[in-house]
Amino acid sequence: MSPVTPRRIVVVGMGYVGMSNAVLLAQHNKVTGVDVSAERVRMVNARQSPIADAELEEFFAHRDLTLDATTDLVAALDGAEFVIIATPTNYDPEAHHFDTSSVEAVAAEVTQHAPKATIVIKSTIPVGFVEGLRERTGNPNILFSPEFLREGRALYDNLYPSRIVVGGRSERAHEFAALLAQGAEKTDIPILFTDPSEAEAIKLFANTYLAMRVAYFNELDSYALARDLDPRQIIEGVCLDPRIGSHYNNPSFGYGGYCLPKDTKQLLANYSLVPQNLISAIVQSNETREDFLADRIMAGNPKVVGIYRLAMKAGSDNFRQSAILGLMSRLRAKGITMIVHEPSLKTPSFLGSEVINDLAAFKDAADVIIANRLTAELSDVTDKVFTRDIFGGD
User: Per residue in 160-172, pLDDT tens?
Assistant: First the structure.
């Protein structure tokens, strides 16, 4: 792509998605991050990453970035040409759709205070959302560009993207794609321009496929456990088929994290008038898996169960929707005493369970230690550890 003129860009929401996009774009553009958290704003202005991400930390420490942050959205919008919205859209199980109120509120502010700016939604949204938002705001300059990021490697996945997808076909849509490609270190990136609803569907179907694959190998593992078979042997044999491959095949307590659980539920809700069986099964698979594993743990009659780390994967400090939380709730319902080792917690308890961040004391106190992913820290108590981590990866 040809060089892009530096732009004035505002990124609203300093989580994984917003922070990685802000840093990526701040290499060649003037970027202002906006967040409701004064502490996150302080950290960004002090050149400290507010989230655990190795590449973000390296860029803050050693790269030349034109980046500042504020809690004042209206002030930040002065002169903005692109406004990226990366605010949370948690799934509302009662309404059966994402809570998009934060996205809509920001879009309304931008439409009022920077009507010429192009709004690019990075938050995950239901299919058809952008079309509806354009109608409600009277603002045609709204795009959707889905993210395909891993927690803990968000900036890396923006520097080396598998693809760039922009839900829009305007000149501004092409310019935004060029800005993302300019900040990346990978070259020859596949770039796809679609209509907004198709881009929204790409995001939900891609994440639901990944959830399906995780669920498949988890159910294979459940079968092996129930029949006293070696799941590693089975998985290795299955995955030698090049049509299947060896990616996303390491069993876990369930698919978790911020995206997969809510995106699968949103896609299922979008199927309300369309016949389906598979999407329902994917959503239900986590419940079945966690029930099965809780019963396996209970079969050993433990008195104290230790939870080693709450985060879903290595290198992440985020445990929103971590599958281990589902196991905890099931064991708690059965009257099991639990203790938690999670160094990122600064409170004495978590969901009613004592937090013990002295690792040696934690190991001594637990009869069984549940670990979603194994680390060398547990090598001396392997006889206590219950994990489904076969291959030592995420």
Answer: 999 999 999 999 9
Give, in degrees to the nearest 5, the angle at Cα 234 between 243 and 384.
130
Question: Is the Cα dihedral 228, 292, 206, 15 positive or negative?
Answer: negative
Please tell me the distance from the alpha carbon of residue 216 to that of residue 207, in angstroms, as a whole number: 14
Contact 170, 177 (CB under 8 A): no
User: Could you read off the pLDDT of 10-55 as tens digits, one per residue?
Assistant: 999 999 999 999 999 999 999 999 999 999 999 999 999 999 899 9
Compute how many other C-beta atoms are within 10 angstroms of the C-beta atom of residue 122: 24
Rounded Cα distance between 183 and 151, Å, is: 19
Q: How far is CA 324 from CA 262, 312, 321, in A?
A: 16, 8, 8
Q: 221, 264, 277: which is closest to 389 by C-alpha?
A: 221
pLDDT for 150 beyond 70: yes
Fold of 212-386: Rossmann fold (3.40.50)
- Which of 19, 309, 261 has its CA nearest to residue 156? 19
Domain ranges of the chain: 8-194, 212-386
Under 8 Å CB-to-CB from 235, ≥6 apart: which residues? Answer: 217, 220, 221, 249, 251, 390
What does the alpha-carbon distance between residue 125 and residue 107 come to, in Å, rounded to a whole number?
Answer: 13
pLDDT tens-digit series, residues 301-333:
999 999 999 875 555 555 666 788 889 999 999
Domain 8-194, what fold?
Rossmann fold (3.40.50)
Give the integer Cα–Cα distance in Å for 381 and 358.
15
**Residues 255-313: pLDDT tens digits?**
876 678 888 988 998 898 899 999 999 999 989 999 999 999 999 999 999 999 987 55
- Which residue, chain included where needed, has tokens 């596949």? 190
How far, in Å, CA of 28 to CA of 258, rounded?
29
Distance (Å, whole) CA 342 – CA 344:
6
Q: Which residues are catalytic?
A: 259
Closest of 160, 165, 166, 167 to residue 188, by C-alpha: 160
Per-residue DSSP letter, 117: S
Token pair in block for residue 112 = 């009022």
